[in-house]
Amino acid sequence: MRARDLLTPYPTVTLDTPVAEAARLLATQNLRGLIVVDGDGKPLSILPGTQVLRLAVPGYCQDDPALARVVDEIHADAFLRTLAGRTVREALPREKRELPVTDPDATVLEVAALMARTHSPLVAVVGERGLEGAVTLQALMERALAA
Predict the structure, then answer these.
(1) What pLDDT is recorded for position 80?
(2) Do 10 and 44 meet the contact criterion of CB atoms below 8 Å apart?
(3) Burial of 136 (0-12, 13-18, 19+ CB in 10 A)
(4) 10-residue mean pLDDT series, the chain (147 residues)
């Protein structure tokens, strides 16, 4: 079995997409991450939903989880509103990481190894015509367990 056999169409965002829009995509389509592309549709990065949360959750709550408990309920429920006016570019990790991208001929084990190595819930699949879609962790696990 190859990556092309597990391929699914997948939504993309750009570096300039409002991060609130990315968060909405993640929530409404029940996604674990998004593919970030350049102007030509070439994958630049994978934006895991956890990175969107990292941008929205105050740093002091990330550094000391006990502080998150002292924030009152009204303010705690409003933390995602802090995303207004921010872009996907700001949500991406600053340090350069391996890009989880493969070709349609990659084996299931190659895709699984790439996911594990990059800690990514999805792998972008790029063929001769550009981005063809993605292999998700769910699709990979379902197929592997069925075999």
Answers:
(1) 66
(2) no
(3) buried
(4) 92 93 90 91 89 76 79 68 82 84 95 93 93 93 83
Which residue, 12, 26, 30, is CA-closest to 55? 26
> 87 by DSSP, 3-state: which?
strand
Structural domain for 103, as ranges:
3-146
Q: What pLDDT does 81 receive?
A: 72
Helix axes 108-118, 137-146, angle to 10 degrees: 140
Question: What's the number of domains the chain is made of?
Answer: 1
Confidence (pLDDT) at 50? 82
Name, in order, each residue with C-beta under 8 angstroms of 60's C-beta and a sequence gap of 6 or more: 67
* Cβ-contact 47, 22 below 8 angstroms: yes
Q: How far apart are CA 145 and CA 133, in angstroms?
A: 22
DSSP letters spanning 111-138: HHHHHHHHT-SEEEEEETTEEEEEEEHH
Tokens of 80: 């995602």
Helix (H) or strand (E) holding 92: none
**For the domain that residue 83 is a member of, what is the CATH number?**
3.10.580.10
